[in-house]
Design brief:
The protein has helices spanning 13-28, 32-36, 53-66, 93-106, 136-143; strands at 2-8, 41-49, 70-80, 84-91, 125-130, 149-154, 156-166, 169-179, 183-186. It is an alpha+beta fold. It has a domain at 2-70 and 94-120 and 154-186: Alpha-Beta Complex (Cyclic Phosphodiesterase, Chain: A). β8 (169-179) and β9 (183-186) form a beta hairpin.
Length: 194
């Protein structure tokens, strides 16, 4: 099975993100991110495959119990080349320490792959639109001066499991979610809306 590990954001960030995604999808006819239907989040660990997710779950559950939430700042726009536009997620010093500890915990699994975007190279962000190169200048001008800023918390870890693919869009469901300072909750394969 294939998994990713995000931290989901609550309201009002969730609504703000969805409004941006929907607006860009409609105005510029770029619907890929909208069709993915993953709520506002920051990815903490990119794709990995395993048939033994229990080893990851044990580490995440222990990690979540042992660590308190840490502040993040969500706001401002950035981009990866001209292919992805995102809302910037800026970790506080406490959140950077928390992420370093999380990566160290996950690195205890020698089989877990690390992409060039993982671990120390992670650039925290909340994607607004992908595959936008042909319309990038227009999108960037459209977003100019429209940034909102939010205080948030890195307070949850959600294991998403790939549940299929349809029309070129990978579908994900929450496999299990962990609350920092609290442990885990099973979701029974619900859609990614903890």
């Amino acid at each position: 099975m294939r998994y990713i590990l995000p931290c989901f954001f609550p309201s009002p960030i969730r609504e703000h993100h969805q409004a941006l995604v929907d607006e860009i999808a409609t105005r510029f006819d770029l619907r890929y991110t909208q069709r993915q239907a993953i709520p506002a989040h920051v990815t903490l660990k990119y794709h990995f495959e395993t048939d033994d997710i229990a080893a990851v779950e044990r580490r995440l559950e222990s990690f979540a119990r042992a660590h308190a939430p840490a502040p993040l700042r969500v706001g401002g726009f950035g981009h990866f080349d001209e292919d992805v536009v995102f809302v910037t997620v800026t970790p506080s010093a406490a959140a950077r320490s928390l992420l370093t500890a999380l990566f160290a915990t996950l690195r205890e699994l020698p089989w877990l792959p690390w992409s060039p975007h993982d671990g120390a190279y992670l650039r925290p962000h909340m994607t607004v639109v992908e595959y936008c190169r042909p319309r990038f200048p227009e999108i960037w001008r459209h977003l100019e001066g429209r940034a909102s800023r939010f205080d948030a918390m890195l307070d949850n870890l959600a294991l998403l499991r790939q549940v299929g693919e349809a029309d070129g869009i990978t579908r994900w469901a929450v496999h299990r979610a962990f609350t920092l300072g609290g442990g885990a909750r099973a979701t029974g394969g619900a859609s990614p809306r903890p």
